[in-house]
Write a structure and sequence with these properties.
With about 250 residues, this protein is of the alpha+beta class. Helices cover about 25% and strands about 25% of the residues.
């Protein structure tokens, strides 16, 4: 009975892990540029003394859904959405280069251009820093231009160009911070073919209906595992009772 109890208990635990990933997807249904996580189960043999006679389920995240979300017009000049394939390069907290589709950018008081989660946006020579200006424009190629405070003729001055990349989907993985990185730890070269739409944002690619169905299925599977644990406990009690009678 202990083996049955162990398998059922592990199944319930893995269901909770999968439910956690699914809940995280639902919680980010309104997060700009969010990429949904996949979750799947696979059987793993229980190794020990002798041959593995039991198997347990293991929940894992095999990858990320990289399908694009829909575009929403905002009119904000600091909002950009990648048109088609590609990513915006940012500098992660650990100093490494990472990639995102969240284009709701902002400027600090010092003029540094940041992503919505606070990572500096990378340009040709590192993080982009903007001078004091009255107006900011971002072209389809990612070129950032500003109108300086002392400009009287309304001309724009090119400051930098946002680094836009387009690595192969199989080369990417999603970190705990929600940013994408190259699996080999390297940096993807800038890709001149990547285009952005100014004044727009890309929505999350989470399918709400699918996520809700998964939540119900995982909850029912968890209930079955709990029922198996109760059955194992009841059978153990019956065996103990029979042993006492003998």
């Amino acid at each position: 009975m202990d083996r049955m109890l162990y398998v059922a208990m592990n199944g319930a635990k893995q269901n909770m892990l999968a439910q956690s990933a699914n809940t995280n997807n639902l919680a980010n249904v309104s997060t700009t540029g969010f990429r949904a996580d996949f979750a799947s189960f696979r059987s793993m043999p229980v190794f020990g003394n002798g041959h593995p006679t039991r198997a347990y389920a293991m929940a894992e995240r095999p990858g990320v859904n990289l399908n694009p979300g829909s575009l929403s017009t905002t009119g904000n000049p600091l909002d950009i959405a990648v048109d088609g394939e590609g990513y915006i390069a940012v500098q992660a907290a650990d100093g490494s280069e990472a990639y995102t589709r969240a284009g709701n950018l902002r400027r600090t008081a010092a003029g540094v251009l940041l992503s919505s989660s606070g990572e500096p946006v990378l340009g040709n020579g590192g993080p982009i820093s903007l001078p004091p200006s009255n107006n900011i424009e971002i072209s389809t190629e990612g070129t950032v231009s500003v109108m300086s405070l002392d400009a009287n003729d309304g001309t724009l001055q090119e400051i930098d160009r946002i680094k836009l990349v387009n690595p192969l989907p199989g080369d990417l993985y999603k970190g705990n911070d929600g940013l994408l990185r190259l699996k080999d730890g390297g940096q993807s070269p800038a890709n001149a073919s990547v285009r952005v739409v100014s004044g727009a944002l890309e929505t999350s690619n989470v399918n709400v209906t699918e996520a809700l169905v998964n939540m119900i299925e995982l909850a029912r599977q968890f209930e079955l595992h709990v029922k198996m644990m109760r059955t194992a406990d009841q059978q153990a009690e019956k065996v103990s009772s029979l042993m006492r009678l003998s």
